[in-house]
Amino acid sequence: MNATPPAVVLMGPTASGKSKLALTLAQQFGAEIVSVDSAQIYRGMDIGTAKPDRATRAHTVHHLIDILDPDAAYSAAQFVADANAAVLAIRARGRIPLLTGGTMLYFKALLEGLSDLPQAHPPTRQAIDARAAREGWAALHAELARVDPVTAKRLAPLDAQRIQRALEVFALTGSPLSSLHGIRQRPNLPGPLVSIALLPPERSSQHQRIADRFDAMLTAGLVDELRALRHRFALSPALPSMRCVGYRQAWEHLEGRSSAAQLREKGIVATRQLAKRQCTWLRALPALAFDPFAPGTATAITALVADALHRTGSGEAKTILPLRAQGQAL
User: CA geometry: angle at 221 spanning 251 and 260, to 5°?
Assistant: First the structure.
């Protein structure tokens, strides 16, 4: 038995109810939430990221929210370092770390280790972006297909961020990104943990929730939020923050390339595609999966967390499921 209470890892696609469940768990078990979201790190990007409001954050402590301006970049390696520091600080206060969000690359880095890849190299990225401006991302995708067909096959021809990274890695190392992905460091999250995935059995069960969620963002002022950010910061559509679903489509709308109706349609479609990718990642990660929309799911997950804490002397519950050993599936 390890005296250190486990960190709780709660993963799920967009619109699966993970934020609401995380708040319930945090309040019941005295946890502090560590956001695993590559968009909520940015200040001012509140509506399009469904960021918890100030009242919620005043009641339940959140970490790794509003740590950068939207004109800055942030890597998985930086996230791992920041998340580990947050987890250690939370445990030092005698509280439970609860890591939740939808950025599956960050979860993979925490649970399975980072791939041994070079850090971002701004001059190389600028050169790639300049070529894309002249030739188009489809042409660079064709080049990627020649040097790294495995990676190119899984990327859309206009997936600028991932094409840029794959070409950057090849330029810096001379090796295809696909050949380096399997070379991993050890898992990064310190101490014991219980890993939970909210995984809808059918995408159709999410579609209406996704549409309702995006409509709510539009009603709340997503376009106005982006307009204000563009006045405040030197932003471009190539920045990671502006590639986020919702903001990318709102940017096109502000540039006059889509109507309000097209913005809504494109935003909903892009969010559904994001959810599909998130679910694909989730199925490959070590976790105990629950249907987020099934009756009794929240109760079952609460009991699982209580059991995990009981085993380390931090709660009162009967055994129902074993803790996940690091690097092994439940």
Answer: 55
Token pair listed for 181: 């992905």
**What is the DSSP-derived secondary structure letter of residue 324?**
B
End-to-end CA distance of the chain: 17
Task: Specify the pTM.
Answer: 0.79
pLDDT tens track for 26-57 = 999 999 999 999 999 999 999 999 999 999 99
> Can you state the percent helix, strand and coil of the chain, rounding each to 5?
50, 10, 40
- Distance between CA atoms of 64 and 7, rounded to whole angstroms? 16
Q: Regarding beta strands 31-35 and 7-11, do their DSSP bridges make them parallel or antiparallel, or are they unpaired? A: unpaired
Comparing CA positions, the residue from 19, 128, 121 lying closest to residue 75 is 121
Instruction: Kindly state the helix (H) or strand (E) to which residue 198 belongs, with its residue range.
Output: strand 193-198
Single-letter residue type at 327: G
